[in-house]
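ok so i was messing around last nite and threw this chain in just to see what happens. nothing serious, just curious
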Amino acid sequence: MDINLVRKANLQLLIDRQFGPGKHGAKAEFARRLDKQADYISRCLYPPGKKGGKGVGEDFAREIEKEFQIPQYSMDKPGLGLDESETISVEGLPAPLAQKIKSYRSLVDVPRYDVAGSMGPGTEPPEMNMVVDHMSLDANWVRQNLTYTKLDNLKLISGRGDSMAPTIHKGDAVLVDAGITSVEEDAIYFFMMRGQLQIKRIQRGLDGLKIISDNTQYPAIEVPGEREDDIKILAQIIYWWTGRSF
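result:
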């Protein structure tokens, strides 16, 4: 795995562990401890390739470990190198509780696919969906901040184009729930239309669907009820790494 991606994931994991997932001002407090600006930490969390982003370099990784008193080189290991081999005894516990404890995961390993959803005119689907990387997310953060069908349905793709700006920008890492394959509510979806992969907002009306780009330069597309089968919903967008959930 790319060490830069590992360090980025660990940076977010450490912030969440120190200050609580989604806590207002957490990045600013984290930055203060390291004598950095909050914007510096934010840019370290940008997805690879995003303009203005920064990597968590060797010196900074070691500085973080020293300040927060975690073992050296923990920032270079998925999940901060935490030992997950220890198990909790479930002997004598009620069966539902025992099963819940045994299935508990402190980290969620989300596969990243070599797939880009167009936020513009559309992109050709790849010949095969290839996993090119993984991102380790703190399971507590996932459970507290995201709404999803099940953990195994969480996938990472990327956005391409500008039609969903300023909500989602070109190159943003996008977390999708592949367990959602129909438009049940107004949301942002990853779908195929006319053989092209798209990321757009979709609203359901009385007589069909309305496909909306957040960039007002792109007109909405009306899809009458009898043509809904032309739209194949692949997943619902539930988070993207500009830092806001939907």
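not much to say yet. The chain is about 25% helix and 30% strand.
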